[in-house]
Structure formats: structure tokens, C-alpha cells
Amino acid sequence: MKVKKLVCLLLTLVFLFAAAACGEVENDSSDSGKKDRGAQGGVNVEMLLTADIAGSVTDEEAEAVKTVLEDRINYMGGTGGSVEYDREAGVFRVEFTAKGGKEAFETEEAAYRLCERGVLAFCRDEDPDDVIFTGTDGVKKATAAYDDAIDEYVVHLELTDEGAGKFAEATAELIGRKISIWMDDTMISAPTVQTAITGKEALITGMDSAEDAGKFADRINGGALPFNLTCIENGIKIGR
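-> C-alpha cells emitted (240 positions)
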């Protein structure tokens, strides 16, 4: 895979035993922020998405896609999300209401955030194929935060037991070598391991703003699709 550099994003991974220094960023994607979305009207979004695979979509895959897309719609601030797989047409029909007017809603960004596979992976050295663990099995929750100790916005990761165990083994093995962090085909960072690391908490640092940290946390929390999707139709209209 070709390593791409994220624009203006220099991330280093800092693992902590406690996150007392981190204050959670107030984010529009929080549960409390979801309750009044759509109450004042907004943009009604309708999309048709196809699966980027050669064969047919199984019932299990269709259900997995439905779950991930509904979660992503929620994290994007959408309400009334509906995802259905039309097997005869071979498309996922997506509908939801987004807050704001037509001019404020970015359809291309929304389509990208829904269609990207979204696999977060921790890998040995800089090899994306040598995976230690992924966000699916290794990360329980990602939260945007502001770290007073280092004076910057971060994404706080809460690791699962499985993720923490695998990472402890890998860091003991790779002292003096790198562990790279990937989102799909993009390498985000590749810090050098200084010592074996245990614990269940981690920070991804180097976020430019609260918005950037919130969006990256949402990408992780939104989960990974079993395959990439392509948006073939994207329509919006002003809601009442």
C-alpha cells in the first residue's frame, strides 16, 4: 500500500496509565447533542451506495454495513437514519436528516465519511500487512479531548483487554523499532518503541483543533465496514 501523508497532521502515540490530564471536548456527536438534532428542520439526505466487491453481498455483510452506517450517521449528527439493502438493485439506500441548510451541508464530505472502510490498524514497523491489532478488536472507545499537560487536542483511546494484551507483547518485542498506526491505506504515524508498554489507555496527539480531534474520534467510533462503498447517487432537499 502506498503511504500517504495526512495534511497538517503529525501524530505521535503516547500511552498512559491514567488520563487525568485530559478534559473531554464538547462535541456535536455526543449523545446529549443528538437529542435536538432535526427538531428545527434541516437537510434531508438520500444516497445510493454500492459495494466495492466482485461477488454478491451476504446477509451478514449487509447487516454489518447497516449497523456501521447507522452509527456513522449518528456520529455525523444525523437523525432519523435509515439504511436498507436493496438486493435486487444491489444498492444500499441511505436516508437521514442533517442539521442546517443546504448551503451549510457538505455532501461530498458526508459521502466520503460514510463510504470509507475505516479500518484503524496498529502494525509492526511500517508494514500495513503485519497487523498487531485493529480498532475493531483492540479499541473500545475513542474520545476527543484537550490535554493540559501537553497543551494540545488529542484523541484518547480506551483499549480492550485483547488490544492491551497484544500491544504489551508487541512493544516488548519491538523495542528500538517502530509501530505504525494506519487508517485504511494511510499511515498516520510510526513512533519508535522505547520500552514495553502495558495499560489500557493511549493518546493520539497532534490534532490541529477540537473539530479535527472530534472527527477523527468519530471515524474510529463509527467502526469499520467489511468493504469499501461507492456513492452513485447523492441528493438533498430542505427539510421542514
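Confidence is low (pLDDT under 50) at residues 1-40.
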